[in-house]
Amino acid sequence: MTIETSYANTDFDLKSEIxxxxxxxxxxxxxxxxxxxxxxxxxxxxxxxxxxxxxxSTRKAEKDIxxxxxxxxVLSSTAKAEFNSCYLREFNIGFHCGxxxxxVHTVPPDVVRAVADAGCSIAVTLYPIRxxxxxxxx
Length: 138
Prior knowledge:
Layout: E1 6-16, H1 21-30, E2 32-38, E3 44-49, H2 61-73, H3 77-85, E4 88-97, H4 109-117, E5 121-128
Parallel strand pairs: 4-5
Antiparallel strand pairs: 1-3, 1-4, 2-3
């Protein structure tokens, strides 16, 4: 059985030296905050995803990124100040890696521009296809 490479999701990762409770609360109203905590390094970390429910094979990072950017655009001044204090504001695009030759997933220029205009970066994470126990599929 061949497993094809596919887009998994986009996490919006935030890190700050100070808590960002208001930002977290406002993002959670329009997105899905998966994680918000003070880590062992003393810094505050959050992982946010969009509420897009498209699970089709044609799903793209573009929709997830733009949904989160829309949420950022309507932040209160307090939440925006907390957002600006984050030293990491990163859209991390994840892919399940299968046996696909030269898989391409394009992020259009207007989305790249919107990410840059929001003062954020883009990262990519590649997830290996594994058995449920974590061992490689052979």
